[in-house]
Specification:
This protein is an alpha/beta fold. Helix content is 29%, strand content 17%. The strands form two sheets. The protein has an eight-stranded parallel beta barrel. Strands 1-10-11 form a three-stranded antiparallel β-sheet, with no helix packed on it. Helix 2 links the parallel strand 3 and strand 4. The protein starts with 19 loop residues before the first strand and ends in a 6-residue tail after the last strand.
Length: 340
Amino acid sequence: DGDGGGSGSGAGDGGDDAPDVLDLDVPLEGGAMLDPERGMLTWVDLADPADDYAWVRTQGYTLAYAGVSLAAFRERPIDADVIDTLDASFDRVRAAGIKVVLRFSYTAGDDLDDAPMDVTLGHVAQLAPLLNAHGDVLAVVQAGFLGAWGEWHSSSNGHFDDPALWKGLLTALLEAVPANRGVQVRTPMFKADAFGGPLTADAAFDGSNSARVGHHNDCFLASDGDQGTYAAGDVEGWKDFVAAESRFVPHGGETCAVNAPRTDCLSAVAELQRLQTSYLNALYHPDVLAGWADQGCLEDIALHLGQRLVLTEAAISEAVAPGGLARIRLTLENRGWAAL
Protein backbone atom coordinates (compact mmCIF):
# COMPACT_ATOMS: atom_id res chain seq x y z
CA ASP A 1 0.00 0.00 0.00
CA GLY A 2 1.08 3.54 -0.68
CA ASP A 3 2.03 6.16 1.90
CA GLY A 4 0.27 9.14 0.41
CA GLY A 5 -3.13 10.63 0.93
CA GLY A 6 -5.04 9.87 -2.22
CA SER A 7 -8.77 10.33 -1.99
CA GLY A 8 -11.71 8.06 -2.56
CA SER A 9 -12.33 4.48 -1.48
CA GLY A 10 -9.48 2.07 -1.92
CA ALA A 11 -7.07 4.85 -2.86
CA GLY A 12 -3.99 2.80 -2.10
CA ASP A 13 -3.42 4.53 1.24
CA GLY A 14 -2.93 1.41 3.33
CA GLY A 15 -6.54 1.29 4.50
CA ASP A 16 -9.00 -1.56 4.21
CA ASP A 17 -11.60 0.28 2.16
CA ALA A 18 -12.85 -1.68 -0.81
CA PRO A 19 -12.26 -0.19 -4.23
CA ASP A 20 -15.22 1.20 -6.13
CA VAL A 21 -17.29 -1.56 -7.71
CA LEU A 22 -18.48 -1.47 -11.29
CA ASP A 23 -21.38 -3.85 -11.88
CA LEU A 24 -21.30 -5.17 -15.42
CA ASP A 25 -24.15 -7.00 -17.08
CA VAL A 26 -22.44 -8.33 -20.19
CA PRO A 27 -24.58 -10.50 -22.46
CA LEU A 28 -22.90 -13.19 -24.49
CA GLU A 29 -23.30 -11.50 -27.82
CA GLY A 30 -21.43 -9.42 -30.32
CA GLY A 31 -20.15 -12.24 -32.46
CA ALA A 32 -17.87 -15.21 -31.97
CA MET A 33 -14.58 -14.35 -30.28
CA LEU A 34 -11.44 -14.80 -32.34
CA ASP A 35 -9.70 -17.31 -30.10
CA PRO A 36 -7.43 -19.87 -31.80
CA GLU A 37 -8.46 -22.81 -29.59
CA ARG A 38 -12.25 -22.61 -29.81
CA GLY A 39 -15.16 -22.12 -32.15
CA MET A 40 -16.26 -23.16 -35.60
CA LEU A 41 -13.35 -24.23 -37.77
CA THR A 42 -12.60 -24.15 -41.48
CA TRP A 43 -10.12 -26.28 -43.45
CA VAL A 44 -6.61 -25.46 -44.67
CA ASP A 45 -4.20 -27.31 -46.93
CA LEU A 46 -0.70 -27.44 -45.46
CA ALA A 47 0.61 -28.91 -48.70
CA ASP A 48 -0.12 -25.67 -50.58
CA PRO A 49 3.02 -23.50 -50.48
CA ALA A 50 1.16 -20.54 -51.97
CA ASP A 51 -1.47 -20.17 -49.22
CA ASP A 52 -0.67 -17.59 -46.55
CA TYR A 53 -3.84 -18.55 -44.57
CA ALA A 54 -4.66 -14.87 -44.00
CA TRP A 55 -8.14 -15.55 -45.39
CA VAL A 56 -8.97 -17.70 -42.35
CA ARG A 57 -9.26 -14.72 -40.00
CA THR A 58 -10.83 -12.61 -42.73
CA GLN A 59 -13.65 -15.16 -42.86
CA GLY A 60 -14.06 -15.01 -39.09
CA TYR A 61 -12.16 -18.14 -38.05
CA THR A 62 -9.03 -18.68 -36.00
CA LEU A 63 -9.11 -22.46 -35.96
CA ALA A 64 -8.67 -24.75 -38.96
CA TYR A 65 -8.62 -28.47 -39.62
CA ALA A 66 -5.43 -29.53 -41.39
CA GLY A 67 -5.54 -33.01 -42.85
CA VAL A 68 -2.19 -34.13 -44.24
CA SER A 69 -2.12 -37.05 -46.69
CA LEU A 70 0.80 -39.46 -46.50
CA ALA A 71 -0.66 -41.75 -49.17
CA ALA A 72 2.51 -41.54 -51.26
CA PHE A 73 4.60 -42.89 -48.39
CA ARG A 74 2.81 -46.09 -47.39
CA GLU A 75 5.95 -48.11 -48.04
CA ARG A 76 8.80 -45.66 -47.40
CA PRO A 77 9.91 -42.68 -45.32
CA ILE A 78 8.44 -39.23 -45.91
CA ASP A 79 10.44 -37.21 -48.42
CA ALA A 80 12.50 -34.38 -46.95
CA ASP A 81 10.87 -31.82 -49.22
CA VAL A 82 7.44 -32.73 -47.82
CA ILE A 83 8.72 -32.13 -44.28
CA ASP A 84 10.17 -28.80 -45.43
CA THR A 85 6.85 -27.80 -47.02
CA LEU A 86 5.00 -28.53 -43.79
CA ASP A 87 7.61 -26.62 -41.80
CA ALA A 88 7.13 -23.53 -43.96
CA SER A 89 3.34 -23.91 -43.85
CA PHE A 90 3.34 -23.96 -40.05
CA ASP A 91 5.34 -20.72 -40.13
CA ARG A 92 2.61 -19.15 -42.25
CA VAL A 93 -0.07 -20.53 -39.93
CA ARG A 94 1.69 -18.75 -37.07
CA ALA A 95 1.98 -15.51 -39.03
CA ALA A 96 -1.74 -15.69 -39.84
CA GLY A 97 -2.63 -15.84 -36.15
CA ILE A 98 -4.46 -19.14 -36.28
CA LYS A 99 -4.06 -22.69 -34.95
CA VAL A 100 -4.80 -26.06 -36.51
CA VAL A 101 -6.43 -29.33 -35.58
CA LEU A 102 -3.90 -31.67 -37.21
CA ARG A 103 -4.39 -35.17 -38.60
CA PHE A 104 -2.16 -37.37 -40.73
CA SER A 105 -3.69 -40.15 -42.81
CA TYR A 106 -2.93 -42.53 -45.66
CA THR A 107 -6.42 -42.88 -47.09
CA ALA A 108 -9.24 -40.85 -48.59
CA GLY A 109 -12.33 -41.59 -50.60
CA ASP A 110 -12.43 -45.10 -52.02
CA ASP A 111 -8.73 -45.75 -51.34
CA LEU A 112 -8.77 -47.28 -47.86
CA ASP A 113 -5.26 -48.74 -47.53
CA ASP A 114 -3.20 -47.55 -44.56
CA ALA A 115 0.49 -48.37 -43.97
CA PRO A 116 2.27 -51.19 -42.10
CA MET A 117 2.89 -50.27 -38.46
CA ASP A 118 6.67 -50.16 -38.79
CA VAL A 119 6.33 -47.61 -41.57
CA THR A 120 3.82 -45.57 -39.56
CA LEU A 121 6.03 -45.49 -36.49
CA GLY A 122 8.91 -44.37 -38.69
CA HIS A 123 6.77 -41.52 -39.98
CA VAL A 124 5.88 -40.45 -36.43
CA ALA A 125 9.57 -40.34 -35.58
CA GLN A 126 10.25 -38.23 -38.67
CA LEU A 127 7.46 -35.81 -37.78
CA ALA A 128 8.40 -35.41 -34.09
CA PRO A 129 10.91 -32.56 -34.59
CA LEU A 130 8.40 -30.74 -36.80
CA LEU A 131 5.61 -31.08 -34.23
CA ASN A 132 7.84 -29.89 -31.41
CA ALA A 133 9.04 -26.89 -33.42
CA HIS A 134 5.46 -25.79 -34.05
CA GLY A 135 3.60 -26.87 -30.94
CA ASP A 136 2.40 -23.30 -30.41
CA VAL A 137 0.15 -23.49 -33.49
CA LEU A 138 -1.26 -26.94 -32.74
CA ALA A 139 -4.64 -26.68 -31.05
CA VAL A 140 -4.72 -30.48 -30.83
CA VAL A 141 -3.40 -33.44 -32.84
CA GLN A 142 -5.82 -36.20 -33.81
CA ALA A 143 -4.44 -39.72 -33.55
CA GLY A 144 -4.95 -40.30 -37.28
CA PHE A 145 -2.75 -42.56 -39.44
CA LEU A 146 -4.86 -45.73 -39.00
CA GLY A 147 -7.82 -46.87 -41.06
CA ALA A 148 -10.09 -45.02 -43.44
CA TRP A 149 -9.43 -41.26 -43.40
CA GLY A 150 -7.23 -41.83 -40.36
CA GLU A 151 -10.40 -42.28 -38.31
CA TRP A 152 -9.29 -45.53 -36.65
CA HIS A 153 -11.55 -47.99 -38.44
CA SER A 154 -11.27 -50.33 -41.44
CA SER A 155 -7.51 -50.77 -41.29
CA SER A 156 -6.22 -52.68 -44.31
CA ASN A 157 -3.23 -53.82 -42.20
CA GLY A 158 -5.24 -55.24 -39.32
CA HIS A 159 -4.03 -52.66 -36.83
CA PHE A 160 -7.09 -53.17 -34.63
CA ASP A 161 -6.79 -56.97 -34.48
CA ASP A 162 -4.05 -56.62 -31.87
CA PRO A 163 -4.58 -53.74 -29.40
CA ALA A 164 -0.83 -53.59 -28.81
CA LEU A 165 -0.43 -52.15 -32.31
CA TRP A 166 -2.68 -49.12 -31.97
CA LYS A 167 -1.66 -48.58 -28.35
CA GLY A 168 1.96 -48.51 -29.46
CA LEU A 169 1.16 -45.88 -32.08
CA LEU A 170 -0.77 -43.76 -29.57
CA THR A 171 2.16 -43.86 -27.15
CA ALA A 172 4.61 -42.94 -29.91
CA LEU A 173 2.43 -40.04 -31.02
CA LEU A 174 2.10 -38.72 -27.48
CA GLU A 175 5.90 -38.79 -27.23
CA ALA A 176 6.22 -36.96 -30.57
CA VAL A 177 3.70 -34.22 -29.76
CA PRO A 178 4.83 -31.49 -27.33
CA ALA A 179 4.00 -32.33 -23.74
CA ASN A 180 1.64 -29.37 -23.40
CA ARG A 181 -0.48 -30.45 -26.38
CA GLY A 182 -3.27 -33.01 -26.48
CA VAL A 183 -4.00 -35.94 -28.79
CA GLN A 184 -7.58 -36.91 -29.63
CA VAL A 185 -8.86 -40.44 -30.27
CA ARG A 186 -11.91 -41.24 -32.35
CA THR A 187 -13.99 -43.08 -29.73
CA PRO A 188 -14.03 -43.11 -25.93
CA MET A 189 -13.65 -46.89 -26.02
CA PHE A 190 -10.07 -46.47 -27.28
CA LYS A 191 -9.31 -44.11 -24.40
CA ALA A 192 -10.83 -46.43 -21.82
CA ASP A 193 -9.06 -49.49 -23.22
CA ALA A 194 -5.70 -47.74 -23.17
CA PHE A 195 -5.93 -45.85 -19.88
CA GLY A 196 -9.08 -46.74 -17.98
CA GLY A 197 -10.84 -43.69 -16.66
CA PRO A 198 -12.61 -41.43 -16.93
CA LEU A 199 -10.18 -38.78 -15.76
CA THR A 200 -10.71 -37.24 -12.35
CA ALA A 201 -9.71 -33.80 -11.14
CA ASP A 202 -6.83 -35.32 -9.18
CA ALA A 203 -5.36 -36.92 -12.33
CA ALA A 204 -6.08 -34.11 -14.78
CA PHE A 205 -3.12 -32.01 -15.89
CA ASP A 206 -0.60 -34.27 -14.14
CA GLY A 207 1.45 -34.67 -17.32
CA SER A 208 0.54 -38.32 -17.82
CA ASN A 209 -0.44 -39.69 -21.20
CA SER A 210 -3.99 -40.27 -19.98
CA ALA A 211 -4.34 -36.60 -19.03
CA ARG A 212 -3.40 -35.56 -22.59
CA VAL A 213 -5.81 -37.75 -24.58
CA GLY A 214 -9.11 -36.16 -25.62
CA HIS A 215 -11.92 -37.05 -27.98
CA HIS A 216 -13.15 -36.21 -31.47
CA ASN A 217 -16.54 -37.22 -32.81
CA ASP A 218 -16.76 -37.07 -36.59
CA CYS A 219 -20.39 -38.22 -36.82
CA PHE A 220 -21.92 -36.09 -34.09
CA LEU A 221 -25.68 -36.76 -33.71
CA ALA A 222 -25.80 -38.88 -36.90
CA SER A 223 -27.46 -41.89 -35.21
CA ASP A 224 -28.34 -43.09 -31.74
CA GLY A 225 -24.69 -44.03 -31.18
CA ASP A 226 -23.19 -41.41 -33.52
CA GLN A 227 -22.25 -44.04 -36.12
CA GLY A 228 -20.17 -46.16 -33.76
CA THR A 229 -18.68 -43.34 -31.71
CA TYR A 230 -20.39 -44.88 -28.67
CA ALA A 231 -20.56 -48.65 -28.25
CA ALA A 232 -24.04 -50.12 -28.67
CA GLY A 233 -25.64 -51.18 -25.42
CA ASP A 234 -24.25 -48.37 -23.30
CA VAL A 235 -24.46 -45.23 -25.41
CA GLU A 236 -25.37 -43.00 -22.49
CA GLY A 237 -22.61 -44.47 -20.36
CA TRP A 238 -20.00 -43.63 -22.98
CA LYS A 239 -21.40 -40.12 -23.36
CA ASP A 240 -21.02 -39.75 -19.61
CA PHE A 241 -17.41 -40.89 -19.99
CA VAL A 242 -16.71 -38.15 -22.55
CA ALA A 243 -18.60 -35.57 -20.49
CA ALA A 244 -16.48 -36.39 -17.43
CA GLU A 245 -13.23 -36.23 -19.40
CA SER A 246 -14.01 -33.10 -21.42
CA ARG A 247 -13.77 -31.05 -18.24
CA PHE A 248 -10.02 -31.52 -18.69
CA VAL A 249 -9.28 -32.62 -22.29
CA PRO A 250 -10.47 -31.26 -25.64
CA HIS A 251 -13.64 -32.51 -27.30
CA GLY A 252 -14.67 -31.53 -30.83
CA GLY A 253 -15.65 -32.88 -34.21
CA GLU A 254 -18.19 -32.56 -36.97
CA THR A 255 -21.65 -33.63 -38.03
CA CYS A 256 -21.96 -36.13 -40.86
CA ALA A 257 -25.69 -36.64 -41.61
CA VAL A 258 -29.12 -35.24 -40.86
CA ASN A 259 -30.81 -37.35 -38.18
CA ALA A 260 -33.85 -35.50 -36.88
CA PRO A 261 -34.75 -34.92 -34.14
CA ARG A 262 -31.21 -35.52 -32.76
CA THR A 263 -29.69 -33.04 -35.19
CA ASP A 264 -32.33 -30.42 -34.43
CA CYS A 265 -31.29 -27.41 -32.37
CA LEU A 266 -32.86 -28.51 -29.10
CA SER A 267 -30.97 -31.79 -28.99
CA ALA A 268 -27.76 -30.48 -30.56
CA VAL A 269 -27.29 -27.58 -28.15
CA ALA A 270 -28.00 -29.75 -25.12
CA GLU A 271 -25.45 -32.35 -26.19
CA LEU A 272 -22.75 -29.85 -27.17
CA GLN A 273 -23.08 -28.35 -23.72
CA ARG A 274 -23.16 -31.75 -21.99
CA LEU A 275 -19.97 -32.84 -23.78
CA GLN A 276 -18.26 -29.46 -23.22
CA THR A 277 -17.40 -29.11 -26.88
CA SER A 278 -14.56 -26.82 -27.96
CA TYR A 279 -14.86 -26.84 -31.75
CA LEU A 280 -17.00 -27.96 -34.69
CA ASN A 281 -16.45 -28.15 -38.43
CA ALA A 282 -18.10 -25.14 -40.07
CA LEU A 283 -18.17 -26.85 -43.48
CA TYR A 284 -19.71 -30.26 -42.80
CA HIS A 285 -22.36 -31.55 -42.83
CA PRO A 286 -23.91 -28.66 -44.80
CA ASP A 287 -27.49 -29.87 -44.37
CA VAL A 288 -27.12 -30.13 -40.58
CA LEU A 289 -25.56 -26.68 -40.42
CA ALA A 290 -28.29 -25.24 -42.65
CA GLY A 291 -30.88 -26.74 -40.33
CA TRP A 292 -29.26 -25.07 -37.33
CA ALA A 293 -29.25 -21.76 -39.18
CA ASP A 294 -32.94 -22.12 -40.11
CA GLN A 295 -33.88 -23.08 -36.55
CA GLY A 296 -31.89 -20.19 -35.11
CA CYS A 297 -29.18 -21.89 -33.02
CA LEU A 298 -26.11 -21.77 -35.28
CA GLU A 299 -24.94 -18.38 -34.02
CA ASP A 300 -25.55 -19.41 -30.41
CA ILE A 301 -23.46 -22.55 -30.95
CA ALA A 302 -20.61 -20.49 -32.42
CA LEU A 303 -20.74 -18.16 -29.40
CA HIS A 304 -20.57 -20.91 -26.80
CA LEU A 305 -18.10 -23.45 -28.21
CA GLY A 306 -15.01 -23.73 -26.04
CA GLN A 307 -14.24 -21.14 -23.40
CA ARG A 308 -15.84 -17.69 -23.38
CA LEU A 309 -14.55 -15.58 -20.52
CA VAL A 310 -16.75 -12.63 -19.52
CA LEU A 311 -15.78 -9.88 -17.10
CA THR A 312 -18.86 -9.55 -14.86
CA GLU A 313 -17.56 -7.28 -12.11
CA ALA A 314 -14.58 -5.03 -11.60
CA ALA A 315 -13.55 -3.22 -8.46
CA ILE A 316 -10.88 -0.58 -9.08
CA SER A 317 -9.17 2.04 -6.90
CA GLU A 318 -10.61 5.47 -7.55
CA ALA A 319 -7.27 7.15 -6.93
CA VAL A 320 -3.75 6.11 -6.00
CA ALA A 321 -1.09 8.14 -4.18
CA PRO A 322 2.35 8.50 -5.77
CA GLY A 323 4.26 5.33 -5.01
CA GLY A 324 1.08 3.55 -3.97
CA LEU A 325 -0.63 0.47 -5.34
CA ALA A 326 -3.74 0.37 -7.47
CA ARG A 327 -6.14 -2.20 -6.12
CA ILE A 328 -8.11 -4.19 -8.66
CA ARG A 329 -10.46 -7.09 -8.15
CA LEU A 330 -11.97 -8.83 -11.17
CA THR A 331 -14.73 -11.40 -11.39
CA LEU A 332 -14.68 -13.57 -14.50
CA GLU A 333 -17.21 -16.14 -15.63
CA ASN A 334 -16.68 -18.80 -18.27
CA ARG A 335 -19.93 -18.74 -20.22
CA GLY A 336 -18.64 -21.08 -22.88
CA TRP A 337 -19.34 -24.80 -22.91
CA ALA A 338 -15.78 -25.98 -22.34
CA ALA A 339 -12.81 -25.28 -20.10
CA LEU A 340 -9.66 -23.46 -21.17
